[in-house]
Sigma-54 dependent transcriptional regulator (Agaribacillus aureus), 454 residues
Amino acid sequence: MYTEEPVKIFAVEDDPTYVKFLRYVLELNPDNELRFFSSGKECIEHLHEKPTIITLDYTLPDISGEEVLKKIKNYDSSLPVIIISGQEEVKTAVQLLKLGAYDYIIKDEDTKDKLINSINNARKNVSLVNEIAYLKKEISEKYEFGKSIIGNSKSIKKVFSLLEKAVKTNITVSITGETGTGKELVAKAIHYNSEKKKNPFIAVNIAAIPNELIESELFGHEKGAFTGAMARRLGKFEEAQGGTIFLDEIGEMDLNLQSKLLRVLQEKEITRIGGNSVIKVDARVIVATHRNLAEEVKNGKFREDLYYRLLGLPVNLPALRDRDNDIVIIARYLLDQFCNENQLGKISISKSAQEKLLKYPWPGNVRELKSVIELAAVLTSGDEITEAEINFNSVVKENNFAYEDLTLKEYNHRIIQHFLEKYDNNVIKVANKLDIGKSTIYRYLKEKEVEIVR
C-alpha cells in the first residue's frame, strides 16, 4: 500500500529577514520538514538528502539562481524548484521556466499566498508521480514469474522455461489453453518482466467487442468517421505504443478484420478510420485463444498467413487437472490471499478437503478453483476448511468423467451410471439412448458395476 512521504523543503535564501518570512510561511503546514541554506553551493552539496521541493532566491552571493537551477536539474530533472525573485522582468521568468523552474514568484505583498499555492500544487504533483512509480514497481513485482504463476509441477516448469525465453526478445507470443488457465496473467508476466515493463500493457478481449466496433477499437477513428464518432479516438495499438498489446480470444476475430490486422503486423503502421495519416506503431504483440488455431485454419475460419505471423513463440498452458499437486499449492495461495484481503485470520485446508480438490476434474481451471476456495473460506466456521465446505458449482458437474484417466470398461460403467441417474433408473430408456442391449445394463447391475440410485 502506498504511503505518502513527508515533504522535505530546501529553502535557499541569504537575507536573514526574508529567511524569517519563509520560515513563518512554510511552517504554517506542520507536515513540512524545512532546511535553510544561505548559498547556492551549500544547497547543491546537500542534494543527496533528496529534498521534495526547493525554493530558490534568484539573487545569491556566490552563484546566480539560474546556475543553481541548472545544477539542480542536472542532478534531478524531476525536482520542483520554485524561484523567488525581486525582479519582475518577464524575459528572466520565461528563461527560468524554460530551464525547468516549477514556478516564478515575485517578492511582493502577495508572495505568501502565491508561495503556499505553489508549494501545495508541487506537493500534489510529486505525490502523484511517486504513487505512480510505486504502483508500477508493485505491479512489476506482482508479476514476477514465481509470484504470479504458482506451482512446481513438470508441466508448469516447462511454461516457466518458455517465459524466460519470451522476456529476452520481442518475439510475438501465442498463448493457448483452456478457459480459466490464466492466459492474461501469463501475458502480463511476460510484459512486466521484459524491457517494456515501464510502458503500457493494453489488453483487448476480441470476443467481448461487436465485430462492427473492433476495427475502431484497435486502430482508432477520426471525428466524423461514422455516425456517433463525435471526437477523435486513439486505438488500442496507439495506446500500447512502446509497450505490449494483448489480443485475447484472437480466434474469434472476423476473417475480414484478420486481413487488416495482418497488414498492421507486417507494416507496423495503422491508419485511423476516416483518416489519411499513416501512424507508425511499436508495440509487442501477445495473443491468446482457447481454440486450436491450426484446426481453424484447416476449416477456413482463420487466415493461414496471419496464423504463421502470430505463432511466434507458442506457450500452451496446462489444464489444472494436469498439474498434479499444484492444485493444492494454488488453493493454499488463493486461500491466504482471500483471508488477508478480508481480515479472516489464518485458515488451513484439511487433508480430506485436499483429496476432494485433487479428485475433481476442474473444467473451469484456476478461475473455478478461486471461486470454490473463496466460498469455502466464507462457509467454514472454524480455522480449517473441511470436505463439506468444498462445493463444486461448475456448469460441467463432477460426473463429467471425460476429464478423468479411466479404462474403457470404467468409462462404460460411468456412462451407464450417468444416464441411469439422468433418466430416473429407466433401463429401457437408457438402453435406447445408448444403443445397447437391456441385458448389458442388467448384467452391470447384477455385478454391481453400476447401481440403481434411490
About this structure: The first helix runs from residue 16 to 26. DSSP finds 19 helices and 14 strands in the chain.
